[in-house]
Amino acid sequence: MLTPELKSSIQKLWDKFWSGGIANPLVVIEQITYLIFMRRLEVLDSQHEQHANAKGEKFKSIFEKHENCRWSHWKNMNAEEMLKHVVTVVFPFIQNLNADEDTLYSKYMKGATFMIQKPSLLEEAVSIFDELNIANQNQDTQGDIYEYLLSKLNISGQNGQFRTPRHIIRMIIELVNPHIGETVCDPACGTGGFLINAYQHIVKKNTSDDLIEYDSDGTAHNIIGDKITKKQHWDQLKNNTFFGFDFDFTMLRIGLMNMILHGIRKPNIDYADSLSKNFDQSKQYDIVLANPPFAGSVDKGDISDDFKLSTTKTELLFVELIHNLLKNGGRAGVIIPNGVLFSPSKAHKKLRQILIEKTQLEAIIHMPSGVFKPYSGIDTSILIFTKGGHTDSVWYYKMESDGFTLDDKRDFVDGKGDIPDIIEKFQNKKKSKKSFLISGKEIKKQNFDLTLSRYQKNSSDDEKYDDPMLMIDNILNIEGDIIANLKLLKKKLEK
Q: What number does CATH give the domain 160-458?
């Protein structure tokens, strides 16, 4: 949980970039990421030296021939000298670095551009970074600082990708419920939110309840995984559990740093257009989680031959991709635009047929249209399914609130809304005023239409109500009791 002082420092840093002429939030976060990386390198180098000395091993510093690239060397230079030194010496150094701890991040730094051009902005940013002391904070705080920065990413990218609210991600992960030993993939990972929260979910499940603290929106802190006692389990979690792909280099750099600062030391996030012919769909995972871009089409000539659907629409191809990437028995949680549920095209219908006949489509959770504001007001739903078998019944839930206002401001209400109810009722697929079950046979009869409104009326018709005469009698009895009590009260007052 960030202290007011830390939040104030982050806001001050953000304001400095804004007033310094860098107004695009994505660019601001990218430039801040580079500064975090520069600071972090020296801290890591010192930690490695201490470990080597403790073991009596030889140590070779990554700064051995580049002592002038240490943060401590240049942070106190005057503004003009500092900017020139960072642009001509430090930034080229980190672009060509192959540090063991951050191999992928270093790889993607090669295409980076340092866009801070005002000496005063760099000087002020470095000063604030020393205030934040981000590289020396504990893992929880490092991750929270970066998440707080990402929360300011209120822009939509090209091709319809945008940041998924963290409480929605956490809900999906609670429903899919990954655990140690399972591999988790996001084929359109962006800033890495699904992968990081899947990691935190697993660690939280293995943390003693009395150690965990929660903030107002339900975010868990001090999740240390004290019940994970085997080194191989930690190694697997940090090195070989989480896999992500994205074709936006800026997002890759931000996602990699996000995962590093959350404790995943060697993130498996790589550059790939996961719909293209060059993407390997034969690699399979236990769990796939995604909020893929769904704002248009891709070039037909680039689309992988592994797809059965004849379409260029990304929202359809990504759902099929997720199905293809799952092992048999693997589980998925994916956000879709509601058009996927009812649009009449052959490709839409064929995808729905795959979901009903080749997976166990467990749940469709219809979200209110304001969930993705200010990025988009599009109506969306969440699909939860398991690959293999077929669908006996689908549990529908109509979410009315996610704990924030549904306008562009998205102000905090309680941070939860219907989410606890969804998680609780999903376990046994309970029926309620907001949820119901529909059989796979009925969906087939309706030509594989999965629209919530099509089945909601039929479901409510099946609900059992008390006998009307009994209800009238109950009301009269209550009314009689009230009248009798009032008469008694009147007598007492008259005495």
A: 3.40.50.150
